[in-house]
Amino acid sequence: MKFPDSGVYAITRELSSAERLLNEVEAALRGGVKVIQFRCKTADNRESTARKLLTLCHHYQVPLIINDNVDLAAKTGADGVHLGRDDCPLHEARKTLGQQAIIGVSCYDDLDKAIAMEKAGADYIAFGRFFASGTKPLASQASLSTLVQAKSVLNLPIVAIGGITTANAPSLLDSGADLLAIIGGIFNQPDPYQASLELQQLFNHKN
């Protein structure tokens, strides 16, 4: 499964009910999101939920990325993994998952790291947080100028994350973000389908 060049990148929230999570994700997929990331730190049913998510995502021809957990990605045959600051090094993840896997890396507000990760073989780079985030309220602030600079020097998709809404998303897109990674802006909304649809329409308008 190929990583998209642009679009909404939905990240799941922590839920005890796999059924509810799957229903929310399907609503987002129907709304047109282009990537799903399974973010699950604690649940005992992570592996079975990931397998169900993978089947669901592939039904919509959308890749499933696993947050942090290379072993879980390998066990379930997910399309890839997203690596944060304290996770497995990129070269080890690549060795475990293979050349076909999608591997993304969080670079926060560090353009030098992003350049190094591109050279090391990352498939996409994520910057953020850009706005106040309920998921990571203490995360360091990223600058729109970093996106502008990144767009001029990187040759892989750039993902922006952190407190993104339909109101503030245009500033990120105008600064060079290719994809918008969103949790609360989709899954904390009354209707994840409608929220996804409205966010994805920002890209349709841009194109």
Pick out its properties.
alpha/beta; 207 residues; single chain; TIM Barrel; globular
Layout of helices and strands:
Elements: E1 7-11, H1 18-30, E2 35-38, H2 46-59, E3 64-67, H3 70-76, E4 80-83, H4 90-97, E5 102-108, H5 111-120, E6 124-128, H6 144-153, E7 158-161, H7 169-175, E8 179-182, H8 184-187, H9 192-206
Parallel strand pairs: 1-2, 1-8, 2-3, 3-4, 4-5, 5-6, 6-7, 7-8
Helix pairs in contact: 1-2, 1-9, 2-3
Question: In a few lines, what is going on in this structure?
Answer:
The chain has helices at residues 18-30, 46-59, 70-76, 90-97, 111-120, 144-153, 169-175, 184-187, 192-206, and strands at residues 7-11, 35-38, 64-67, 80-83, 102-108, 124-128, 158-161, 179-182.
Write up this protein.
This protein has a single domain (7-206), classed as TIM Barrel (Alpha-Beta Barrel), CATH 3.20.20. 43% of the residues lie in helices and 18% in strands. It is built from nine helices and eight strands. It has helices at 18-30, 46-59, 70-76, 90-97, 111-120, 144-153, 169-175, 184-187, 192-206, and strands at residues 7-11, 35-38, 64-67, 80-83, 102-108, 124-128, 158-161, 179-182. The protein is globular, with a radius of gyration of 16 Å. The mean pLDDT is 93.
User: Which second-level CATH architecture applies?
Assistant: Alpha-Beta Barrel
Q: For the terminal residues, how far apart are their CA atoms?
A: 23 Å
Mean pLDDT, all residues: 93
Low-confidence stretches: none
- Reading side by side through the largest sheet, how are the strands ordered? 1-2-3-4-5-6-7-8
Instruction: Assign an overall shape.
Output: globular
Radius of gyration: 16 Å
Number of helical segments? 9
Question: What kind of sheet is the major sheet?
Answer: 8 strands, parallel, barrel
Oligomeric assembly: single chain
